[in-house]
Structures are given as C-alpha cells and as structure tokens.
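Page 47, continued from p. 46.
Same chain as before, 152 aa.
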Amino acid sequence: MQYMFFDKILRIIFCAAALGYAGVSSAHDAGATMDPNGNVANFTGYARVTCFDDGNGSADYLMASIKDTSLPQDNLLVNLQIIKGDQAISTTDPVSGDGNFSPTVSVHGGNGVYLLLVNKTAAGARSFLVSYHCVTASEVHTGTDISVKQFE
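Result:
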C-alpha cells in the first residue's frame, strides 16, 4: 500500500515537472506517459489551465492538440478534451504513433480556468505531448498557466 502511494506521488511529481517546464516556454508543450504499466484502460489526466492577461491582452480562447509519441498500436489512441463553463470540445490523435498532432480544438471562454483532460481508448501505456495556448481575439499568445490535478 505504501509502495502504491509512493508510486502515485512520483507520477504526479513527474507530470507536474513536465507540465511546469512547458509553462516557462512560449510553446506550452507538455508530455508524460499515461498508464506506464499498461493495465488501466480508463486512465485519465486532468489539469486546470488558467488564461490571463500577461500584458499581451485578455484571453479570448484556449486552443490545444495532442500527439501520441508512442510506437503505433492498433485501436489504442489518445484523446484530449477542453471544458469551460457550459462549453466542451474534444480531439483525438487519429493515427497511433505517427508523430503528428491531432486537429487543434479551442473553447472561447475568455480569461479564467479551463479544464483539460487527456485519456486513451484502451489498456496500454501511451506517451503523449499536449500543445496548449491561451490566445487573444487578435491571435496573440497571452498568459497561460497549468496545474495538474490528477494523473491516474
């Protein structure tokens, strides 16, 4: 039991470090591995992305896409969802492990907190990269922070 707690804490720290590193870059790309043991089909990552005016203007929307960086595997895809208020949208990397991002999706919710979820379609370890950006109405990148809440 203590091992499982320690393992969970290490995963959270790894993901937070990976996502925190992305927060200091202008690209806002973050990656991790979902379900490293490959036995949790309903593995879900959940983060809160905060969009704010960092001097470039108020955010109009959050845009994001996901890329499966693992080796190709049939019927095992990675998904991403953005939710804010009563708006939600999702995207899936349509080809497992091809090195390309999913179609980019966005939610126009202005400044504030957006929920960002990542999951996969079946059991199996999947490494992924998420690209996320808060953008103004005039298409200028603005303040973007992320906080990982769940990765299990």
